[in-house]
Write a structure and sequence with these properties.
Structural class: mainly alpha
Order of helices and strands: HHHHHHHH
Shape: rod-shaped
Number of strands: 0
Largest sheet: none
Length: 208
């Protein structure tokens, strides 16, 4: 009876796993490779595992039947774990892509603002430019957003790669250490006052 109860519990658990997998398939985007893998397992190996467990009770050699069911369950785990690792690597790569895209956009905008500042400096302008100052000031918001993005991805990546997460944390701290936001605010203030040459020196610190 004890063996029978254990077998019934295993069958029930396997059926619960298959039911949960069915719900997961409904939730996952059809374009995700993981959905395709789960669907194949749901329609194939998961059905087979339940059948093999049910066959144990009437098998001439129960031990062989149990081993067959275990092999099927192991195959399911291998496929899910392997796909999970691929998915995690894809997520980590996407995180890096997001961060580099944000950094590139930030540098591009800062260089553009510096170019306009340089034009005012060459023209020996004495009046400040409120529009340019405002652009420089607004860029500080993107610095804050970049830091938050890095910290967010660091928390996500920490689940799979502690060393990578540590590097992300260090990158976020470097933004503060280099006083990028503070220098942008200082440059904006100087542009507004018409101090274009001093503003250029501050902007160069940001881009260094």
């Amino acid at each position: 009876p004890e063996t029978r109860n254990g077998l019934d519990a295993s069958i029930a658990l396997q059926e619960e796993i298959r039911t949960a997998s069915g719900k997961l398939i409904e939730l996952l985007d059809e374009k995700l490779p993981l959905r395709g893998v789960v669907k194949v397992l749901y329609e194939g190996e998961m059905v087979q595992a339940v059948k093999q467990l049910r066959d144990v009770a009437k098998a001439a050699k129960p031990a062989d039947a149990v081993q067959a069911a275990l092999d099927t369950e192991r195959a399911i785990l291998v496929r899910l774990t392997g796909r999970g690792d691929q998915l995690q690597r894809a997520m980590d790569t996407a995180a890096l892509r997001d961060i580099f895209a944000a950094i590139d956009a930030l540098i591009r905008e800062q260089r553009e603002i510096r170019s306009h500042t340089d034009a005012f400096s060459v023209a020996v302008a004495t009046q400040g430019d409120a529009t340019l100052a405002q652009k420089q000031d607004k860029l500080t918001l993107k610095v804050v957003a970049l830091k938050e993005l890095i910290e967010k991805h660091a928390r996500t990546i920490a689940q799979s790669d502690g060393e990578q997460a540590k590097r992300f944390d260090e990158a976020a701290k470097m933004i503060d250490a280099r006083q990028i936001r503070q220098n942008m605010l200082l440059a904006a203030s100087k542009i507004e006052k018409g101090q274009f040459s001093p503003a250029l020196q501050v902007q160069d610190k940001v881009l260094a």
